[in-house]
Every structure is written in structure tokens, then in C-alpha cells.
């Protein structure tokens, strides 16, 4: 039986990890609704992203304080080292969250595809094709996925710039109204939502051990700022170009792409479908990979490849069922948006670990002191 | 590892033929009815859909000429129902992806635009840049005029595009109309297309003005002059030609081409009442001048022309705003959005009483016209010919 | 067999490098295939030797043996018919042998005279077993066996016929050298040696194939190539298990990277100048006797898009050509699939008039778009293959028929739409732009036609991502084959999507082992990857 140490850890560069996380996070623009919660329009979204940007920094302080003491290790490994019990528990929790996120990704994508692009397509088949492809990506491994994500991110940004140019003539700042129109409360609420939707931070915390050089903070900074800039730009475009029209669309950003092409490059549908296929595949693959790793942490790595297949089938099942029963889908979405996984795993867990470490230090120090006295 | 990845590849390949049975909505081009243009009318309680279908069968020879099109007409209680009936004619899938025009008949517009547009807005194939226009009378006539011999189907499209450039039309796209329908008070307007019969029974199309809506329903139709006023007031005018009389007893006449207009609207509150400051800045050149006397114009007279033009613009805009906004209470100018943006507090309190807001509102219009290219002909302006 | 190889490599001595011109070194594996009893040593008695040789070789007809007397001592001469330069043989060998007179001649004296007082050929060698005897014999040596001496003397006098050096037939270039490799490996060695006159250029010759004993030759620069890379190539080649090796294609599967991929991570070239450029970047070339193609490992994906001409053009044009090649490759793989997917699933992406034209031309065709694309591309591949294999004069006829069949006739007959002809023509043209990627492009094209016809653009995107990920996962000797692009390195990109001028390229030397993501630099662990 192989132990954890015997498995060659895939090593990726900091830039690759950042690209991977940014790409995975770009998935949010697929389901991006500037005005899901309020009728006020997307100005709130822009402000809340900026506020949420700083809020996230605040919230991430304990995590990075903890991880700085353990360079080259991820959050789960730190937990395992400090207390095997907490390590097992956290692995289980991470496993659960990763499976849920992967399923949500597949389900969201299936919904998008079967409502915006191919309305008559069967969700079941799309899910199967999608899951099989994701499994293949996971087989190819983290290194391959992260290498690919650099190329995909470059392509995505390039095509988004083209889209931006095409949209320029539609920009109408009249649609941009004061974000405080609904009061500061909505902004704060949206900001907290911005943090809780930032599931990629969990992936970041788990992938730190794969970095060639321990530079987690750099990755976080790069990832977080670039994503925030992208999201601000996207919501600005959505708000100014679509205005109230966006409210009538289920996938406003998709409409944005279609619009941008309609004059300059004819229709841009394909590019956006291609981008989203890539982004969704990468995101689902990353979380499936992490889920497999966490399951391996729980049950040993012996059945690694089969565990992957089992997880893939599990994801397929959950996503297929949740697409059929929209209530389950909403439940999953609510669970992720509620902040339980984010606050629980990225704030409470590090705090708990810091406490454990502090207690261990306290227990050790007197001993060392007494040993010193004896000597 | 190799073995398992091989299994997955094999699985993918096995899945392929399984999917061949058509779980996606594949449709060959020959199985599609490509609709170039749609007209929506009301026939009693039912929608009457007139569609212009691209039909390559009607062609002789190999070359495709676009003039051959068929007209299909269906009826239904909803538009989807009517569209569904198309397949009763030829068993094909209806395809709106390349439709360029939606023509709304007068009666359908009176029933409400939203009911007409909803189908197209939710259809995934339809481009948000679909032109929406209104027909004077029946939409059917406009569509039929397009299918007839002698008039090319692109006629309407190029007419609208040209009209947009010439400042006769705004942005009558699906996206824009939906945007206005969705907002609190702003109302859409549509260009009005008229069918004109010429001598040899050939039907031609003509832009004849603008239709304005209130609560999504047809309220009134404006003449071309008034339509220009709307565009002027909303900063959508691209180009305009204005002819003014000037000189001692207005005996000389000049045409000015304005090709660069900017309209700025600002809302402020004055003693609790909204004040809208509209400032229009136009730049242009003298196009054509005729004099009652020989010789040319002096530089001083250029200013006079400028003032005359500015006055005329102001008059047009004032008239349109008076008629459309103040009388008919249709906010095709989107001024409500300005109030919302600049005075959100006031808007929150008063948005329910839109009529009252309009009554309270004062509108100041200032027009500034500048003629900076004197035109090509040198005789127009003889610089200080009198002074010496 | 394996063990012998490994021993040989582990005891790799410096002697070999000094014998660059040498044909066979003493480290030839002891054991020629199945003739195990041939490992016995030669006897002193000439007659006994000759009888045994006849027996081992089953009296093959191309074995010539003569016996002459040199100063009264019987000497046997053995050679393979047709592999010896007869003129050289008579002038250099037979005449001195027949004219010499050695006082008090016995076997040892003659043998001493031959080995010390004559130079019959530059690679004259002594040997002791039948096994070696046959190896030398089959390689075109003349064998001298002297009565009363239990060893033989081999003199290289190869004189077989081979094709003269001519222009390479695959990698045509407008500017640059007109020389291409030829079949004999030794001629190829000289072509490389002439281009790199450095003592660090090293040839390592090994026989491979249980029966064929084909010579393969590793070429590399000792001061540039990573020793780990050289060792890894040797190890991989030692796993070779086929009986005969007739072309470079027999070797390349042993050198391919992981995982399975339609793209190869082993390059082939017919040009000595290309090979020299590659080994100067730290790569290893492998010459195979009997083919005019050399293998290059590790081979990056971007190298498929480089050609010798790029370097003689001015940089801006070279860069333009590079980008053009990438675009053409993309077209050759995706264009038919995209065309099918767009017309079947999302015609709204086409401009009105184009859609109307396509719709009109498709109206009369009997098949679905996918079948149509599949058929016409299949026909094209058949015609290409036919034109390739036929003698040249007939090949022209095929291309004329092809033009007729694919072009006008198929449209006239109503089998395919006219716009499909355009697509197939464009695809075919694009696939010629990057000839080394023709194989994957030809097959992937069909895959994407099916995928595009069944799942539309969604399927094509999924396929694209899987393909890209497969490419990114592919490693050749620890170097990711997408190297300067995807483990990103701006400095190394100077010869990738664009080509910098030689002022820059010459200054910053690229070595494969230093590419980003290369594992050759880190400590190699034989652990399972996750």
C-alpha cells in the first residue's frame, strides 16, 4: 500500500496556480447576475466587489498567519500534523465541499447549455459527456491541468478584450446609478456574498502543497486582485451595456458576448461557449482532483484511480439529479452561498489550529525549560 | 494508469454513436425554415404571423439570388402557437437566428409590445440586435412588399441602417426596446414604416415617422419632424439637415448640415421640483446657400445662420417634448432614468406619481450651434468685401 | 540481453569516445541471436574453422571463401559477396599477401606480419570467436584466417552500392543546404561531422534488433546534452525487443512520452543541418542505418512549426510564417468540424448571405452535413494516398481525377454542396503547411467532424480542451512538450510563435534541459505520480 509520502507530488509554479484559480473563478461570470438579489441593478455589484476585495483580505488573515508557519504544506496537512483527529475531520469536510462544488459546476454548466445554447439537448447526456471529460482531465493530472490553464487563461483574456472592444459602442453610463441607492446594507450583504462565493480560496488552501516554491501569499494576492479586476470590468460592462435588459436574461454575460459580436465579428456565441466549456471543465476537474485527494487522505491512496472514478460517478449523479429537481439544486447553491463552507473551513479551522498550536507550544515550552534547567 | 485512461477513451468513443440518435437539437439546413423577417398583427383575439421565408427551391439555376422568398402566414393565440404551425406547412424547424426584422402591426402594438417581444426575447437563436419596427397599418403589408418582385429584401434593412445614419431612426433593436420596457418609466419608441403604392402597383416602403408608447402600448405616432425632435433630445441624432431663412427680410436661404450633435441632460432639484437642463451642441457646415441679391454672405451673416439654426432646433425639440412628454406622458427620452440617477431620493419618493413628476418638471433647453466648415463654394463667404 | 546492455552502459568508458571513426568496438554484445553454439572460440586448424563456418552459415550462397598460401602458410579469406570493394581488395590486400615472403614462415609469423607490418584498412581488427567473425562478415569486412592461429583478422573494405547524397525529399527548403541524409549511417555521420567540427560532438554506435543487428548511432554534444538525458535515451533503447529494425519508425515508440497522445514527442528529420541545429540545443539525434531519416529527442510541439527556412528569412517574415503555420494547423484540424457544427447546430453564427448560399447549395444533397463532410474528406484521403504510392507519371493522373471528383463532379452529381468543396480544399491545403503534423491532423479532422456533427460546438470545445490537456500532459524525457508556452518562459519563446533575429538567438542559447517545467534539472525520483 502506498502512503502519502510515496506518491510523487505534482509540482506547479506559482503563476500556474494563479492562472488555474483565476480560470476556475471565471466560472462565476457564467452564472453572473448583476441583479439577482435586488432590483437596483449592477452598480451595487461593482461596489460590493471592491468592498468584498478588502473584506476577503481581513478574513484570510488567520489562514495565512497559520500557513506561514508551515511552508510547503496545505491546510489539511497542517491540521493533520497538529492533530490527526482534526486532520481526518477536515479532510472529510473538504471532501464534501469539493464534491458539492464539482457537482454544482457540472449542474450549472448543464443548465446553461441546455437553456441558452441547445435548448433541446438532453441534460443527462450532456452531464455524461461532461463528467467523462472531467475524469480524463483528472487522469492527466494537476500538472497538465495547470499548464493548460495558462494557455486557456491567455486565450480567454484575449477574446474578452475583443469582446470589450466590440461592446464599447453600447456602453451607456445612464444605466449606472448610485450603488448606495438601496442603502449601505445591501452593499455589505453583497460584499459578504462575494467572499462566500469565492470557493476557489478553498482550492488555494489545498493546493499550496503543490507549489514549487512556497509562495502562497503571492498566489493569493495575484489571484484575488486579478479576479476582482475582471469581475469589476465584467459587471461594469453588464450594467452599462445591458441595463434593465439584463434582468430579462438568464445569462446576461452570454447576451453580452452575442451583442459584442453582432456588429464587429458577427456573432460571438461560439467563443463564449468555448470559454465556458473550458472554464467549467477546469473547475470541475480541480475540485474532483481535490476530492479524490481528500478521500485518499481518509482511506489511503491505494485505490486512487478507482476512487477518482467513483467520485466522478458521484458527481454525475448529484448533478443529474439536481438538474432534474431544481429544489436540490437551489439547496446546493444556498449551502455554498450561505458561507458555511467558507467561514467554517477558511476562518474557523485556521483559528482552531492556531489555538491547538498555541496549546502545544505552551505544553512543550515548560518541558524544554525544565530540560534546560537540568542541563 | 494507462489501462484506465484507455478505458475512458474507449468509453467516450462508445458514447459517441449512442448520441448519434439526436439527443441534441441537430437540424440540417435543409430541414430548417429560415425566416428572414417576421410581421406580427392582431386578428381579433389571435396573433397573425406573417413570415418571409428564404426558399432556395424557388430559384432557377445555381446562383442564389436573394429575391426569391415565400410568405407564410399562420395564426395562433400566442406567438409560439403560431410559429409552431409553420411546421404544418413543410415539416421543418423554424429558424429565427438570421431574422433581421420584426415588424409590429398597429393593432398588435396597441395590445402591448411586451406580449409580442417576449417570444423573441426568450428564443435563443434570435439576436438581441433584431430590428424592431412598426408598420403603419398591417405588418403583413410590409412583409408582402418585401417578397414582391422588384424590391429586394435587403431594402428594409439598408433603409433602416441608412435611416439610422441619417438621423431618422434611433436604435430600434430588440435589446433596446426590452431595456426600456423593463425600466421603471422609460418607454420605447419604434420607427414607423409605411407601405406606399406606386403607379405600377408596385409596393414600396418608406420611413414615415415614429411610434411612441406608454406602458408598453401604442400611444401616438409622430411625424418625421417630431421624430427628429425625440432623437435630438436623446442624443441619438447622427446627422440632420436644417434649412433656415436669413437676411434682412428672411429672403436668403441656407441649408446647414449638422453632422456632430451632442445632447447633455442634467437633472437637479429646485425647491423640491425637478429641473431638467438640456443642452444641445451641434456642429456642422453650410451645405447650400441661395441669396436674394448677388454676391456672397458676410462673416457676420454666418452668425445669423447659426442663431437661426439653433432657434429652429430648439423649437423642434421644445415642440416634441411638449407633445410627447408633457401632454402624453410618454417618457421616450428616458428622463426618468436621469432623475433616478441624479436625484435618487426624490425618485424613490415620487416614482409612483409619474404624472405629478412630469407636471412639476421644468425643462430648460439651450442650443448652441457652430458652423465650422464654411463649405466648398468660395462665393458663399466673401470676407470683408464691404468693409473696404 | 537487457543485462548486457545495462552492463555495457554502466561501464561506459572513455575509450569509445576516442574511437569516433571506429566501426565496432569491443563491447559488442556477445551473442548473435540464436546461434549460441557460435560463441565458441576459433580453432587453430584452418580446415576445421572453414568447415564450421560453412556449417553455421548453412552454406549460404553469398559467402565467398578462398584459400591462398602466404609464404607457404595457408590463409583463408572470407567475405560477403557484393559488400566488398573488389578493386581495393585486390590492390591493397591480395597483392601484398601474394608477393610477401617471410622467412621461416609459420602461422604466428604471418599473423604477426599482417597485424604489425600492413595496413589493409583503417579499421583492421583481431577477433577470437565465430560470433564476432559473423558480425564482421555481415558488416562487409574481409576476414583473414591463418592456419595455426586461433584468431582471425578483420579488415573493413566495404564497397556496397548506395544512393548518392541528394536533396531531401520531405523537408523542402528554398534557401539553405541541399544535402539530405542517405541510407548508410557512416555517410550521415560525416555529414554531421563536417558541420560541427568540435571534439565535443560524439557518436555512439550500437547494434539493435536481435536478427538484423542494425547500427544505430546516438549523436550529441557532450558539453551541451544533459548526461541524464543521454542515459535515459540509452535505457529506453535497451528495451527494444524487435527482431529487425528497418526504419526509424521501429525505434520511436520506445522513445515516446507519456500519456498516450495523437502527437508524437519524437521528431524526424532528413536534413543534416536541422539535426545539427537540434543537437546544438542539447537534444540527441539518433541515426539509423538503412534510412535517410534521423530521430530527434526530446521533441517539443513548437518544433513542428519550425523549419530551416524560417532562420534564413528576415525575422519579421519568419515570425509571420510561424503564426501562419499555427493558424493553418488549427484550420486543418478544426475547420471541417466547425463547419459541420455551425451549419447543423448554430447557423445563426453565419452572416445572412453566406447562410443563404450554403442553404441553397445543400438543398439537393442526399446526406446529412456530417456524413457529407465525412465522405468527402475520406475521398480526399484515399486520393492522397493513391497519389502518394503510385509511380510519379500515374500520380499526376490521379491528381487530375481527384480535382475532377472532389471539385466539379461531386457538386454536379448532387452528392455534396459546393461550399463543402471549399472547406475540404482549405483543410487539405492547410494540412500541407505543417507536414510533420499531417498524421494527427488527418485523423483528428475526422474525430472532430463526428464530434461536431453530433454534439455541435459544445462537443468541439470539449474535444479541444481534452486535446489541449493531453498535449500539456505529454512529456518527452521529463520535458513538457508544450514547454516554452505553457510552463511559460518569455525568454525561451523567442523562437516559438515568433522568431527573433540571430543577434538575439545567438546570444541566448537554448538548452532543452533548462526549459521551464523540465524534470532533468531536479532529482529524479522513481515514484508514482498522483
Attribute tags:
heterotrimer; B: about 400 residues; alpha/beta; GMP Synthetase, Chain A, domain 3; 2 domains; 9-stranded mixed sheet; 4-stranded mixed sheet; 13 strands; disordered C terminus; C: about 525 residues; alpha+beta; 3 domains; 5-stranded antiparallel sheet; 12 strands; disordered N terminus
Over all CA atoms, what is the radius of gyration of chain A? 22 Å
Shape of chain B: globular
Oligomer: heterotrimer
Q: What is the average of the pLDDT values of chain B?
A: 77
Please identify, by name, the CATH architecture of chain A: Up-down Bundle
By CATH's scheme, which homologous superfamily of chain A applies? Amino acid/polyamine transporter I
Q: TL;DR?
A:
Chain A is mainly α and 375 residues long.
Summarize the structure in words.
The complex is a heterotrimer of chains A (375), B (388) and C (530). Chain A is mainly α. Chain A has 15 helices and no strands. In chain A, helix 6 (123-140) packs across helix 12 (269-299). Chain B folds into 2 domains: 29-57 and 66-222, no CATH class; 223-388, Nutrient germinant receptor protein C, domain 3 (GMP Synthetase, Chain A, domain 3), CATH 3.30.300. Helices cover 35% and strands 32% of the residues of chain B. Chain B is built from 13 helices and 13 strands. Chain B has helices at 2-19, 79-84, 86-90, 106-111, 113-122, 139-147, 154-165, 174-182, 224-233, 299-327, 335-342, 344-350, 354-360; strands spanning 32-43, 46-54, 69-76, 93-95, 101-104, 131-135, 189-197, 203-214, 217-222, 240-246, 252-270, 273-290, 362-373. In chain B, a hairpin with a 2-residue loop joins strand 11 and strand 12 (273-290). Chain C folds into 3 domains: 31-156, no CATH class; 185-311, no CATH class; 323-473, no CATH class. In chain C, the strands form 3 sheets. A 5-stranded antiparallel sheet of chain C has the order 1-2-4-5-3, with helices on both faces. Chain C has a 5-stranded antiparallel sheet with strand order 6-7-9-10-8, sandwiched between helices. The radius of gyration of chain C is 29 Å and the shape is elongated. Chains in contact: A-B, A-C, B-C. Chains A and C meet through helix 6, helix 7 and helix 12 of A and helix 16 of C.
